Amino acid sequence: MQNNFLNHINSPNELRLLKQEDLPQLAKELRGFIINIVATKEGHLGASLGVVELTIALHYVFNTPEDQLIWDVGHQAYGHKILTERKAIFHTNRQMDGISGFPKREESVYDTFGVGHASTSISAALGMAIASQLKGEDKHHIAVIGDASIASGMAFEGLNHAGVTDANLLVILNDNAIGIDPSVGALKQYLTNVKKGTQKQDNIFEALNFDYSGPIDGHDIEAVISELRRLKTVKGPKFLHIITTKGKGLKQAEENQVKYHAPGKFDAKTGNLIVKGEIIEAPKYQDVFGHTILELAKENTNIVGITPAMPTGSSLKYMMDEIPDRAFDVGIAEQHAVTLAAGMATQGLIPFCNIYSTFLQRAYDQIIHDVALQKLPVIFCLDRAGLVGEDGATHHGAFDLAYLRCIPNLVVFAPRNEIELRNIMYTAQLGLEQPIAIRYPRGRGVTIDWKQPFNKIKIGQGILLKEGSRIAVLSIGSIARNVTKAIEGLSNTKEIAHYDMRFVKPLDENMLHTVFKTYNIIITVEDGTIKGGFGSAILEFASTNNYKNTIKILGVPDRFIEHGSVDELQKYIGLDAEGLLHYFNSLL
Fold it and tell me: What domains can be seen in the chain, in order of their start residue?
């Protein structure tokens, strides 16, 4: 495709010089540009393809960046980035030292608010709109939010407040009936009825004092532009409902919207995924969780599974397919997921609440107040713990060890491999009398024959993996693999001992007393923040027991780590096997 229009557009200023009748051709070119780059560089495809016309229309009608445009989550912002001075470097998207896969304030003045988690756009845009009022500025503030995100509690909090203001706020609902997985819940059904014209109840958004318009075809660029121009003249909070198709313009992405949310590499011309050769690999940790909970649930009818909008990403889908009445997708509602699990636990059910580590941050009060305070035996399974790679700072699960280990009554466990994950899940459903958090990484493990008979794990018990004479390395979780490789690379492997502590809380104090009495130098290694995490727990143990050993803490430094592959990021902060080997050698 010849990008006759796109070639000459580097910012919205050039875009606004085009004739309106040229914009459909520009939309085709922009779609092709996104497809060609993402096909080889990977990234979030479907969401951005679905809002191409809307993106062009917004920058065409509004005076961005003076008028402030806020995207929710940011999966859909690729077209926005390309049109706002980043076309030439878009090929670096999500790569180390390249541009972020999400809107980011320090990256561009057009990215007015940094995003990555869902349901923040309305609150942020309202805050900006009120600030403009107070400063006497005449600006427009536009929040673009999807039908999956708008069902979240925070989005409703924003709508509720906005409806009693006269702020110059426009909320655009990008309604495509899907987030990463299909949207769920009563609001989704309401929106479906609105689209079909069968909704008989009062309009919910008008009831919240918004000037509602729509639904309109979000791929009819003339209709979208016409309505945006009209809404520019309307004062107060406004709500535009548009209907789009996720993956629009690529047949496979339209037909398989879950897979093509972030499909990996594919053929840009055919749309077909590029499949690797038949290689026997260890499973993804998420699949070990998914198959294991199904296996356990078939034997224990009290087990239920809960996920906030991530049945595919968490692999709870296996249980949802076979035992649908005991597996629940609650939508983008982490707070509700946690307290729902707490309620179930009071009635004798055994809830496995699977939430990505970075998203569990949103339910911190519920973990403390609704679960731990009442000592309810909820089993939290924290997927994507540690560094997650190209999604970057908004998605790294670097803080869970630190923010969880300070909570009373909560057990915190990190499996070294897939077998340990299975065994702790088995152990947890046997009748723990307190909650437990199990955190495991994104991606594949190392064990091909992972599906082995279950063995019960003793709570608070670590493991000696390797004896040594001079230095003890204490690791937690899957980072043990890098530690093992590093030790194997030493010229004298007999000098370093390696312990897998497994539990951050409770610590294996008997083992630690042995370690502190045996070794002068102790190194802790974790793939979480060094501030307040596993290493800090070891320091506290040493202080409490008056040990004077030299303690070195290795982990994620006290700063937000940007995007790149997991291997690149581990190397960057010295947690790869080579970096650990160099560090161990420096102490020998």
Answer: 6-261 (3.40.50.970), 285-441 (3.40.50.970), 463-587 (3.40.50.920)
